[in-house]
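fyi for ur records
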Amino acid sequence: MSNSDQIDYWNGKAGEKWVLHAERLDALLAPFAGAVLDRVALIEGEHVLDIGCGAGALTLKAADQVGTTGQASGVDVSEPLLALARKRAEDRHLSARFERADASQYRTRTEMDALISRFGVMFFDDPVAGFANLKQCLKPGGRMTFACWQSLAENDWARAPLEAALPLLPAPPAPPPPGTPGPFAFADQDRVVKILSDAGWSDIEIEPWRGNVTLPGDTAEEAAGFMLEIGPVARLVAEAGINMALVRAALFDLLSQHAGSDGRVPMPAAAWIVSAKAQ
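which gave:
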């Protein structure tokens, strides 16, 4: 999906669905926000920019850390999500700023101390150019930390539901070409290192994150419903136009096998926590 397609996508029904489920999505992705903030180690008074900030969950956590003498800002292409981010900041009396922009071309008004992102950097048409541009937003020696997904095969929370839906499709979808912008575009850590190196970044470090994420919903049935609203399965089913009831039943059968004693569904996830410095 190109940058222009991404902008259209996130300002349409997809953005509206993410707004509707924002609290549940933030809970799902909370471990990764924590991992990013632990690595970047923000200091009170610093200025930090959240790339692909969505509804602002990571930005607002950063705002708490940099305090009133610092500044946390977020950029995203989705106006519906940014509207929610601004409301959240207002409700919490935080001075976080949010701006609609394509991060691959965005320039800050002042130089930042740090850049952060929770799964917001894997969608650039030209990732080398995008990261080279972002480097210009930092002070010399400034730092960047972001989370990105490892491969689909390593992320059962996304892969297993897809496999449950595949037998119901008229034909299996063609896999995207390697490096195509998308959620799993940075699965190859060597490719990530090369992209950042070519973009002029130094001191590149990549650490694996592995653990369980708990799917939204108090039961397997609710989790199945959520997966049909947001995520890889939701998009695949919508594009194929297949019977939703059949897919829901297949998902429920699968997720029931993973449900814990409390009824909720934990599933394995794997990400990279990437850090680098501006030369």
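The first helix runs from residue 3 to 10. thats all i got for now
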